[in-house]
Specification:
By secondary structure, this protein is of the alpha/beta class. The protein contains 13 helices and 18 strands. Helix 8 runs parallel beside helix 9 and helix 12 packs parallel to helix 13. It starts with a strand and ends with a strand.
Length: 413
């Protein structure tokens, strides 16, 4: 039997799908992650924006074009948000929520045995949901360490869909990290910064990974997590100097309306701490353009912080009202205003990326290569025609190329 598991959304979704892929293999089912002809389809959905939810719905139809007779199982955040929408689609036989993805493998077991399907579960998960270790990759493994969120940003549905913050046990994390065959491990979670076990925090988790024979990369962080303790821990282990530090707005006034717990000045101070510890660090971020309370002056502050923070990459996207959030009750800005501001922000983001890359040209970095290019420790996309997939190399960045830089191979590591 061949199954296709198709994933939309975040790195945590990717990690959970990789775990389900391992569960399928343990049951003798060949799994693919790209859309293709298959006997069974599994769809891991996303609801972070209206566009992500729309793509999740469209994916069902795309699957059925390959094999209209194959059953479709839908799970994840969009399924949690609108289960009826998916259950009414032709071919969908099982829908379950975001916090109980182990129910997918329970359904597969029942399907293989010809038994009745388990009950769908959309209730809150009070403990971390353990899944099989993800399928081993030569390049990188996304390691789930946390789920849920307690922050309740005014624009975000995820805490309502994923539930409250909960952390995976340190022992379970270490066991999976030590058996991973990848050259890089990415720590992932809905709110990675909130990982806790007793009196241990994220800095302690990073230190605990010191003997793992892989480069450690952190997923998205909150400003409050960028402490001297965390930076010191990262310097003590083989940690990538790449920080995805969520911003959302450069205006303190808008940040308060978003229920973000920091000011513009506190954000920039966190960037300063990062650069003091790692002078060549990449700081990447997300920015929401056109939040309902955003004035032209607020937007100008978002534009200016792109240069002030020295971002290496900016993911900017227009505000998308999510029903059920506080921000959805606010008067939205016009589509034309958001479109015009997105154009300006995109130009600023492109310029920032070019500035950072220009500063890195001629430097020596460590790059892990995939099938088409690789990434340096500070998250620069690099290309070399003879680099082996899964190979770690010391490289020198030579010139801009495609979405990153061409490089010379100095030696294989």
């Amino acid at each position: 039997m061949k199954a296709c598991i198709f994933t939309l959304g975040c790195k945590l979704n990717e990690a959970e799908s990789a775990s389900i892929l391992r569960g399928l293999a343990e049951r003798g089912i060949e799994g693919k992650t790209e859309l293709c002809a298959a006997d069974l389809y599994l769809l891991n959905t996303c609801a972070v924006t209206a566009e992500a939810e729309r793509k999740s719905r469209q994916a069902v139809a795309r699957m059925r074009k390959f094999n209209p007779a194959a059953p479709v199982v839908v799970f994840g955040c969009a399924a949690q948000s609108r289960p009826q929408t998916f259950s009414e689609k032709n071919g969908v036989v099982f829908v379950t929520g975001a916090a109980h993805k182990d129910a997918v493998l329970q359904w597969v077991d029942a399907y293989l045995k010809g038994e009745p399907a388990p009950c769908s579960d959309f209730g809150p998960e009070r403990a971390f949901c353990e899944l099989p270790a993800p399928m081993s990759q030569k390049t990188r493994t996304c390691l789930r360490v946390q789920d849920g969120c307690d922050r309740f940003c005014s624009y975000c549905l995820i805490p309502y869909l994923r539930g409250r913050s909960r952390s995976r046990s340190l022992g379970s994390i270490l066991e999976e990290a030590q058996t991973a065959a990848s050259r890089e491990i990415v720590l992932t979670g809905v709110d990675l910064s909130s990982w806790r076990e007793g009196d241990k925090d994220l800095a302690d988790l990073v230190l605990a990974l010191k003997d793992v024979p892989a480069r450690i990369r952190l997923g998205s962080l909150e400003v409050s997590a960028v402490t001297e303790r965390l930076l010191s821990a990262m310097r003590s282990v083989n940690a990538a100097p790449h920080f995805h530090l969520s911003l959302q707005s450069g205006s303190t006034r808008v940040l308060k309306a978003m229920n973000r717990k920091y000011t513009r000045e506190e954000y920039l101070a966190a960037c300063d701490r990062i650069y003091a510890a790692f002078p060549d660090a990449a700081v990447t971020t997300d920015i929401i353009v056109g939040f309902p309370t955003e004035t032209e002056e607020d937007f100008a502050e978002s534009l200016s912080i792109v240069g002030a923070a020295g971002f290496s990459r900016v993911h900017a996207f227009p505000f998308s009202a999510r029903e059920g959030t506080n921000a959805a009750r606010l008067k939205d800005l016009s589509a034309e205003t958001k479109r015009a501001r997105m154009e300006r922000m995109t130009k600023e983001a492109v310029a920032a990326e070019a500035r950072y890359l220009s500063r890195m040209l001629g430097t020596t970095r460590t790059a892990l290569f995939e099938a088409d290019g690789g990434y340096t420790e500070n998250y620069i996309r690099v290309y070399h025609e003879t680099a082996e997939e899964g190979g770690m190399y010391e490289v020198r960045l030579t010139k801009p190329f495609r979405d990153g830089a061409a490089c010379e191979l100095i030696r294989k590591l």
